[in-house]
Here is the input.
Amino acid sequence: MFILSEEQCITCGTCVEACHNKALQIIDGALVHDPDKCNWCGHCLALCPRDAIMIDGDGYDVEDVEEFNMLTRPTPQQIRRQIMMRRSIRRFNEEEVTDDELSYILEAAKYAPTAKNGQDNFLLVVGTEEGRKEILEDSMEIIGKAGRECAETMPGLSAFFMMKYKMYKENGEDGLFYNAPVVIYVFSDNLLDGAICASTMMQMVDAQPGLGACYLQLAADPFNKDPELKKKYGIPENKQCAIAFALGHTDEEFFSSVPRKEVPVVLK
Ligand SMILES: Cc1cc2nc3c(=O)[nH]c(=O)nc-3n(C[C@H](O)[C@H](O)[C@H](O)COP(=O)(O)O)c2cc1C
Here is the structure.
């Protein structure tokens, strides 16, 4: 619900100019909001110099809004270092992921941008030993089946699936989650929303000392291959799994960044 404090609003028009959906107008000297045009992105609220606008109810909580100063952003040098030092972590130690660490990561999911502010992401957080074992067994069966089915059409992929499946079946090796204490699956109506949500959460993983993570396309695939798996774990039918990631503490220490190829760029 859009709430306007008429006492605080000075009809300066800042919000009207900024609204890309044209959901705000000044009519007869008063600010008027059209809920049918609004996608509830909150840009008007964030820009209002008089704190005259609020969005509350219908899943939004006024208590979430925090004041901040744009000058306190991390510097480009700090962000560059964080990007370059990030590694995929596949070796986790025994240390549990704390509730505080996890809640920072889950909060980041909420602030990820989504197309048309659809906020359509849905998370499955697997944080118990039994839960992980069950989902590993279910996923490996689907990976094994997929491996057998594509043996002729995609021999390379089939061999990869069968290698993971056999490692698990014959030696009990977890080549899917790498024995991570936590696995987070991101589902969405729109795969791009899900991928961006995961990437936003990953920023918060990297910001917490000792934590590490690895994206897991291989873990996401079984949910998109077999609708029964989604049903079993309470995932809404319309959601697809964009990606999953393994999360835990690591003892790995890194002393340098790694070389990478240039991304081709066309300048016009
Ligand atoms: C979309 C995506 C899917 C990935 N899926 C897997 C996966 O299923 N299993 C795995 O071990 N690593 C997976 N990775 C990790 C990549 O292998 C890794 O990012 C790449 O080798 C570069 O290494 P770095 O992340 O340490 O820089 C995935 C990465 C991305 C971006």
